[in-house]
Amino acid sequence: MRSTVVAGGFYEAERNLLEEQLNECFSGVSREENADIVGAVVPHAGYMYSGAVAASVYAQLPKADTYVILGPNHQGVGSLIAVAQDTWKMPLGEVEVDKTFVDALPKRIIDLDETAHKYEHSIEVQLPFLQFLFDKTFLFVPICMSLYDEETTREVGEDLADTIAQIDKKVILIASSDFTHYEPDEIARSKDKYVIEAITELNVAKLYNRIYERKVSLCGLGPIAAVMYAAKKLGATEGKLISYATSGDSTGDRSSVVGYGGIIIR
After folding, report:
1. Strand 239-246 relative to strand 93-95: parallel, antiparallel, unpaired?
2. What is the pLDDT of residues 206-249, one digit of tens each?
3. Alpha-carbon separation of residue 83 from 35, 101, 190, 210, 256 (angstroms)
4. 112 falls in which pLDDT band (50, 70, 90)?
5. What pLDDT, in 10s, does the model give residues 163-218?
6. What is the DSSP letter of 198?
7. Mean local confidence (pLDDT), 60-72
8. How many Å apart are CA 214 and CA 216, to the nearest integer?
9. Contact 240, 223 (CB under 8 A)
10. Distance between CA atoms of 252 and 50, rounded to whole angstroms?
11. Residue 151 contacts by C-beta under 8 Å, 6 or more apart in sequence?
């Protein structure tokens, strides 16, 4: 059983307070399921900063059997590309991993390793949104990434697409990532717009080129690129920016912000 790492910090640790917090995140957001969605990009900061951006994407996600959530490994612990299968204990209840999906993964580059997930928050913060919308009617697959090179992300994406294609389940891919870190608001918005254009075009090569060209400190490059590769192989043709904000929108301090983008892929 995996216990929470950032409950009580990034989001409320008590059920009733967390439900109130999630209600606030979804305030003013219409629940409009889009059956065409194959994947998404959502932020993983504290809910006070990025919760509304994340909610704007989750409000469009269709009900699925399994949500595959890819996140960066901020801690540098464990295998470089790691999937886990332990149950996750969350304030809104336990969430089960889709072990059938995990067993079906080729394992040529994705290792089964619980330690990589033990202290990492980027996947954990996504689960309350799914629980809030779908209660206990879904399974998930957590994949933590420390390698971000284009060849690795292509292999991960292809393995995911191949696995999804061979199982009889509705699966949605989710990439957990924040965008520019700790730059003035105006610069962050400019850099992030430049990068988001490449994501919405599902052009992985352009994404990498623009990241390196502008030195964009996007933390979830690996998860985003892997989801782009997988989604394209599964037939997706475009992405769409649903919401964008910076931490400055919450704090009022625009001298050094983090950018948050919410994107659907269909």
Report:
1. unpaired
2. 999 999 999 999 999 999 999 999 999 999 999 999 999 999 99
3. 26, 11, 34, 29, 34
4. very high
5. 999 999 999 999 999 999 999 999 999 999 999 999 999 999 999 999 999 999 99
6. H
7. 98
8. 5
9. no
10. 14
11. none
Parse the chain into domains and list their residue ranges. 15-265
- Distance between alpha carbon 103 and the CA centroid of its chain, in Å? 22
Bridge pairing between strands 88-90 and 111-112: unpaired
- CATH number of the domain at 15-265, out of 3.30.870.10, 3.40.30.10, 3.40.50.300, 3.40.830.10? 3.40.830.10
- 3-state helix vs strand vs coil in the chain, percent to 5: 40, 20, 40
Q: What are phi and psi of 91, to 5 degrees?
A: -60, -30
Please tell me the distance from the alpha carbon of residue 127 to that of residue 92, in angstroms, as a whole number.
9
DSSP letter (8 states) at residue 205: H
Q: How far is residue 253's CA from residue 266's CA, in Å, rounded to a whole number?
A: 35
Helices (H) and strands (E) in the chain, counts: 9, 11
Nearest alpha-carbon partner for 64 in 163, 174, 162: 174
Strand partners, 243: 262
How confident is the prediction for the chain on average, in pLDDT? 98
Nearest CA among 61, 52, 64 for reference residue 31: 61
